[in-house]
Design goal:
This protein is of the alpha+beta class. The protein has 17 helices and twelve strands. The strands form four sheets. A five-stranded mixed beta sheet has the order 1-2-8-5-3, with helices on both faces. Helix 9 crosses helix 10 and helix 10 packs across helix 12. The longest helix has 25 residues. The model has no long low-confidence stretch (mean pLDDT 91).
Amino acid sequence: MRLTPGPARDIDLDRIDLFDLDLYTSGDPHPIWDAMREKAPLHHQVLADGREFWSVTRYEDVCRVLGDHREFTSERGTVVTHLGVDDVAAGTLMTSTDPPRHTEVRRPLGTKLTARAVKSWEDKVRGTIVRFLEPALHGATFDLAERALLLPALVTGPLLGIPEKDWEELVQLTAMVTAPSDPHFTQGSEAATLAISHHELLAYVKEWVKTQRADEHQDDSLLHHLMSVRPGGAPLSDEEIALDGYSILLGANVTTPHTVSGTVQALIERPEQFEKAQADPSLIPNLVEEGLRWTSAACNFMRYSVDDVQIAGGTVPARGAVVAWIGSANRDEVQFPDPHRFDITRSGAKRQVAFGYGAHFCIGAPLARMTLRIFFEELTQRFGSVDLAGEPQHLRSYFIAGMTHLPIVAQKRRMP
């Protein structure tokens, strides 16, 4: 979808279809979200098949929905592809579980992913990113979006304990989960693509667990760490480990590539911002926060109301599906003045909610932030310029805002 909105236009909020995949593939949802924040901060839509959902688009309402599990539960599903069909893994899968169980599973994993813990990986991550960027330094066309799909696996594969030979297949499978209608990833129908990817990912982690249990020389990887987690005092079953491993793989793979691509596109379109970052490397951490806000790669999350809930000037009935639009919250003018301006010096960019909010705030955020910081440090210091070499192609997904192709040409920076 377009990250820089087109001209303002009249929008009939009674006729918009937020489940129209074309809106995200080739359309322009930001003017729609702008209108919703102003005129319909609680918006109700009924799909042709009778399924219905309520949308919140303002920053404070998105934070409330994501942050209060007593009002809005995760235990019926958290992604819009599950709308109308309760998640069969709810209550077990970490992303579809409320506290206290969610906290009991998450906390021991989180100790391995704090900013201090991942700091020890910085040199390895930097080496990986330097090798990743090297082919682009020779002036040939480099498809950043296509290649970046593998970047998280290059960084997190060793941390997760995933053999290198499996990275490409797992990246393909996680992309199938989040964009089952995209022609690059679909295998038959959307339902078939989801079924295949769910089955293959779970089967992979189950086999991994089986191998680990038989191995006397077990590693210290994040997936292995799941085997020692004991929510409520009881160890996780192999099925529970497989489900949580599946959740970790998804979280590791699906958003960072699109934050990279979308932020680079923003810098190409605004060369003065690229030059600012080149001139002052201390701006890079804020560039990362502005890139996260700007791209909002996970553009929504879903919850279900536990009881009737008053929110955004209206009522969501008990058991109603509520979609919290991250992409809109991160362009809320109350929080981010002039929100459709990309500005790496923006004050308050770190308030962005691209990593979610509340108990389900992305467990891998410190590693993602470090990876993005290193990426843009290396990009701005090694590249003198970056230009488009063709039309970007956007991901066909109403969950992940991203690109499948972003062809670029870059010139090596001449150092004084």
